[in-house]
Amino acid sequence: MGFKMLRILNYVVGPLSTNAYVVYDDDVLEALVIDPATDEILNKISDLINSDLEIVGVIATHGHADHVCGVKGLRELVGCKFMLHELDVEVLKESVEWALEWGIDISFNDVRPDILLKGGETLRLGGNEIQIIHTPGHTPGSITLYIPSSKALFTGDTLFKESVGRTDLPGGSWDKLASSLKMLVTRFEYDVVVYPGHGPSSTIGYEVSNNLYVRRVLRGRY
Fold first, then answer.
1. Fewer Cβ within 10 Å of end Cβ, the chain: N or C?
2. In terms of pTM, does the model score above 0.90?
């Protein structure tokens, strides 16, 4: 089977305007949902769910509430597997407490991952691969997903356009985040598109030139 660019759909949902993504191959009709922030995602993708497209998995870039609240409804509706890095299982549990303070629905509090990731895995979607990269810092188990055929990088709350993820929440570490950032911006080509957990998309090249945090990391000034 030949490789082709996957389709990428972006939906901004939830009280913290989280970017939820649906990545799919319209040849084999398989889809992966990334960071389903709230059950609002079910309405957003209802046409896809009711079509012949099969949602084969749901994955969270990390365990914070604003990235997982739609997991339960989605998994119950279509029976897909939920994937999360093993180091964020505790983060997922702790998120229940601070979710209430942010006014986020906590219906996810009985959700448990079906598949625990370590980083380094490669998922398959049709004829395409999705690489799982461990990028700790925002949380211990934060991950980034890379799709080589589409030159697409889903960074969660690790890297934003002109900004980076916060490290003041439990489990956060600026030193680890800085290492993750340096790895990402030196590993990938400048034309790779960055799809963050919040805010507009960007490119690696743009961030190297315009993101002050990234520039500090590259200069060793952190």
1. N
2. yes
